[in-house]
């Protein structure tokens, strides 16, 4: 009993130092419903960063662009190219959706990795990337689902549902299942990547705080950027897929 | 690593409360309000979607109590989901108005202008070639004119000179002829005079030589 209690005490000390707070959220209440406040706060910061930087850089467009304008022109061209490759010729109306998806996820992930959130102490839970919460990623994945349904239905009308029996009617259950696995995989891929990267970095920092976590943090920056790109590309691909077919 | 993390969690929670079971109940109570909330279609469908893998996870983990608490911690769906969705849609509209549309229109206009100028430049280079050829032709014509004029002048000059030459020659010949005539006349005169003198002389000589009888 003494041994167990002393080892429990040791474990407690380690827990205090490591401060891994997985699954701890700051709860707010609206009506009878709860909100993960830390996700909301960090998402507001991300939105503020996006809107302010866009406003500053794109205010007076010059024919020969300034540095900021050049960066945002590059980003816009990148998004246009991505949309055009995946969706095809009718990519114009979808640029805001795909672009916002890419920018929101990218800035969220990098803000979670780069900004010193731990400085602000919350009464419960901690601030981190808004995409480390299942609610955010599932929200984005569901929006993508709605988007590709909307794309297919607005282009083809009710004959959009013919795609479920397209190659052969035997594939009907698989096609229906696909409509569930698409948002599932999108959300879990992003959620797992970001949360796991945060966990790895936190655990490493709790063990060897000085130099060792840096390569892992750099890897985290790289993969979180890639995850933003993958999410946006897949969203565009699903939209393009549901819009293709007879024109 | 993960096992130590997972191991520390229940112990810390045990530290926070006297025993494990009240904590379990409180978390379940916490999870309950969101599940009996106002029917929210998205959260209902998402619960349907994710109940399958979460149930699978539950069955798989060896510590069901721990997994249940983890589920409340990690897979905690609540009002955050629609709020984030609404925030995303508002952000999309805002970015479209501030960034995608204006900058996109500006870039397209700039591209169109550059393309127009480029095609213009291509046309003017053809014009320039035309002008060059015209210039060369004009130069050639001018040179030919000059050459023709030169040769014409030369011819005229030589013709004039020849005329003058011929005139002078004729005059000289006339004068020569006149001079020769003069000389002839004088010669004849001289001969006549000489003849006369010769006659006189011969008579004198005869008189002087022959005796006067």
Average pLDDT, all residues of chain B = 76
Low-confidence stretches of chain A: none
Counting DSSP E segments of at least 2 residues, the number of strands of chain A comes to: 2
Most extensive interface: pair and counts?
A-B, 60 and 55 residues
Give the overall pLDDT of chain A as a whole number. 88
Major sheet summary line of chain A: 2 strands, antiparallel
Structural class of chain B: mainly alpha
Helix count from the secondary structure assignment of chain A: 7
Largest β-sheet summary of chain B: none
Calculate the terminal CA-CA distance of chain B, rounded to whole Å: 196 Å
Could you state the order of secondary-structure elements of chain A as H and E? Answer: HEEHHHHHH
Based on CA inertia axes, which overall geometry of chain B fits? rod-shaped
Give the number of helices of chain B. 5
The proportion of strand residues of chain A reads under 5%
Shape of chain A: globular
Relevant terms:
A: 247 residues; mainly alpha; two-stranded antiparallel sheet; 2 strands; 68% helix; B: mainly alpha; 90% helix; rod-shaped
Question: What do these coordinates show?
Answer:
- The complex is a heterodimer of chains A (247) and B (213).
- Chain A is globular.
- Chain A has a two-stranded antiparallel sheet with strand order 1-2.
- Chain A is mainly α and 247 residues long.
- In chain A, a hairpin with a 2-residue loop joins strand 1 and strand 2 (33-36).
- In chain A, 36% of the residues are buried.
- Chain A has helices spanning 2-18, 37-57, 67-87, 95-114, 134-156, 172-207, 213-243; strands at residues 27-30, 33-36.
- The mean pLDDT of chain A is 88.
- Chain B has a domain at 2-92.
- Helices cover 90% and strands 0% of the residues of chain B.
- The radius of gyration of chain B is 69 Å and the shape is rod-shaped.
- Chain B starts with a helix and ends with a helix.
- The chains are: A mainly alpha (247), B mainly alpha (213).
- At the A-B interface, helix 1, strand 2, helix 2, helix 3 and helix 4 of A face helix 1, helix 2, helix 3, helix 4 and helix 5 of B.
